């Protein structure tokens, strides 16, 4: 049976066929070479809230937020020069209307017509990330109980690890949780904190400064010697903080003074 040879496609025909295939994808698909956008599908244009014409020709790195641009530039360089596949990563992009979105990014080298290029697939995970952040915030609020002892006095036991993210959330959550409590003094017990590092030392100093501005005295208990040493390393002056060995000692001090 004779074989029927199919005619070779021209470069423009190859590009048009490629575009027809990717246009059916619901994921944002961008083809770029040397950072210049050669093609974006309709789903991608809709996601970025722009027309295809506005995106094609633009620098693909410009859609990423500043904290990711250097990493993205290096991924593109390796993809173009070494033809390596960029592993799945989480990143943030800026859309043309000024809003931001969280995405999962996957890149791999392709031949677009006669051009050596990279195809990037972006999956919108904004809603998923928001849900994760909301759940984490709720978890942190539940795990940060402010326990009233008597009128004007409460105890806050901190348990677990305090990294940079949790430190920032605590600095936001604690002032909110004491509103309406009519507190004069808050005892923060840090004996249950696992990590003893610079982040914890800086957190204690910052929350003390915030509470001073709110007119609330802080008494820290359970500060271990290694934490005091870390405070010296980052030049945090613990001499400004009111500290006691245990919650029991702090309660006794407060009751004697009042």
UniProtKB/TrEMBL annotation:
Positions of the STAS domain: 143-254
Coiled-coil intervals, chain numbering: none
Keyword list, A-Z: Kinase, Transferase
Annotated InterPro entries: Bact_StressResp_Reg (IPR051932), PAS (IPR000014), PAS-like_dom_sf (IPR035965), STAS_dom (IPR002645), STAS_dom_sf (IPR036513)
Matches recorded under Pfam families: PAS_9, STAS
GO-annotated molecular function: kinase activity
PROSITE patterns, per database record: STAS
Xref: NCBIfam families: sensory_box (TIGR00229)
Protein name per Swiss-Prot or TrEMBL: Histidine kinase
Lineage: Bacteria, Bacillati, Bacillota, Bacilli, Bacillales
């Amino acid at each position: 049976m004779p074989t029927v040879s199919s005619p070779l496609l021209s470069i423009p025909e190859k590009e048009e066929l490629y575009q027809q295939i990717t246009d059916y994808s619901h994921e944002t698909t961008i083809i770029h070479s040397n950072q210049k956008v050669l093609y974006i599908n309709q789903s991608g244009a809709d996601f970025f809230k722009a027309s295809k014409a506005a995106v094609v020709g633009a620098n693909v790195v410009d859609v990423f937020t500043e904290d990711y641009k250097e990493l993205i530039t290096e991924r593109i360089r390796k993809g173009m020069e070494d033809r390596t596949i960029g592993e799945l990563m989480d990143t943030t992009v800026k859309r043309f209307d000024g809003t931001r979105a969280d995405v999962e990014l996957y890149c791999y080298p392709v031949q677009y017509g006669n051009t050596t290029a990279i195809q990037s697939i972006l999956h919108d995970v904004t809603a998923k990330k928001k849900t994760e952040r909301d759940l984490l915030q709720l978890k942190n609020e539940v795990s940060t109980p402010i326990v009233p002892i008597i009128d004007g006095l409460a105890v806050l036991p901190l348990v677990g690890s305090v990294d940079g993210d949790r430190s920032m959330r605590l600095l936001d959550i604690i002032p909110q949780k004491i509103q309406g409590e009519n507190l004069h003094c808050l005892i923060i017990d840090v004996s249950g904190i696992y990590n003893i590092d610079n982040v914890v030392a800086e957190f204690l100093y910052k929350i003390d400064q915030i509470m001073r501005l709110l007119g609330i005295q802080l008494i820290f208990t359970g500060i271990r010697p290694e934490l005091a040493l870390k405070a010296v390393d980052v030049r945090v002056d613990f001499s400004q903080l009111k500290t006691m060995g245990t919650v029991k000692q702090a309660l006794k001090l407060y009751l004697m003074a009042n």
